[in-house]
Predict the structure.
Amino acid sequence: MTIKMIVIAVVAEIIVMLLFFYVPLSGLSELGIAVLDGLLLGVLISPVFYFLLIQPVRRATVIEQEERLLLYDSLTGLPYGPLFQEVVTHEIHEAIRDLSCISLIIVDPKGLADINQEMGFQVGDEVLVHIAKAIQGVCRDSDMIAYLNEGSIGRLKGDVFAILASHADMAGSRIVEEKIRHAVDTPFEVDGVAIDIISTTGIAVYPDHADNAEDLVRFANSALAMAKQENLASVTYKEGRSSAASRRIEILSRLRQAIANNQFELFYQPKVSIYSDKVCDVEALIRWMGEDGLSPAEFIPIAEKSGVISEITAWVVKEAVRQCKAWQSDGIDINIAVNVSARNLYDNELVDLFVQACSERQLDPSNITVEVTEGSVMSHAELAIERLQLLRDAGFRISLDDFGTGYSSLSYLKNIPAHELKLDQSFVANICSDSRDERLVRGVIDLAHDLNLSTVAEGVETEDVMLMLKGMGCEKVQGYFYSRPLDAILFEAWYRARQSD
């Protein structure tokens, strides 16, 4: 509300109040008095009504309009770069789930710069709108069309249109591309002037060429550049996947089969109390069994990137809870730690997954420790801390893993609702020979104790390292000095042998 409007409202209010107090009410009918009362009430509440109802609605409308300008091109009404890349990523995840294909077609209408220069930008804008409508006219409702200008996404040059065609393999992409190119290249008129556009296209297909949004855009753009260089109407990315991309796609395909065929197994590595020499907990480590099996270091990052990690984590949590309950029934009372990735942390169903798994087996949540790396927490600290707090409130223990390899600040560290802190083995292994590592580990242990956190040292392989850690006040150690990771049967035998000694 402007100052002028406020002044007018105040003056009007004064006039009405004067009328109310100085006009003899005895001369008015009941209807007249009611009208005067209503007028006074309206003047009094109108500023309040404006501030409480009208102004917030207007502000929300302005914000919505500003957000739309960031996501959609104002001329064509088509999605812009950031929104398009987000949709490409989402559609690839859907294709992974459905085992389907996606084609990305980039269309570069030649001659737009000449039209702008010779006929003016108004005509150029009308040409862009016509091209957008022509493409929309031949695409399916399920296809996404975007208008991308230079720098809006990847290394695109000039103004192009991008079409994401769902459920379109190599052959299907060519059919879609031909329809689009024919629609764009059909001559038309703008203000009586004949316009003849000749377009060039580049095509890339998931999963044939790429397994992520960034590479899919890059390869489609490479195909477009090749078409321009060779003066061709269209080029499908032909150089094939890079060896790394081929490997990722192969592993992803095998991963899904491994999940369906139950080819995973949990191995357990003990955490031992440095003072009592008793096994306190074990860390559950997933292994891919059989001749197709791969190291977790190779398949876990691919699972995280593709979204398959959610299915793997769900299996790990349920299996760890089942095993913990089974051991309790056999007199082995130890806790099990489960690793959770950054992607898992941002899953709204993570807390329910842990709670439901324990509820189904009637296992106390305090028997399960949730291990998260420092890096995964700090990538989206506030959301991660909120999720971890929910897990802690539900009764689960929280362990901050690989401490020292990330970049957490003390302001965030003090807010992470952890029970214990695990020192990364890259610092622990050399504390007997490297004074810098020794001082660093000692400082981290002291810091953890100041924050009321217990400490676990990973990668302990010698007695000398174990004794030095004991002198520093570290509570637990984990590593080959005590045991390598063992499957459930071997671990149970190892555990009972230690108990009998």
Q: What stands out?
A: The longest strand covers residues 264-273. The two ends are 83 Å apart (CA to CA).
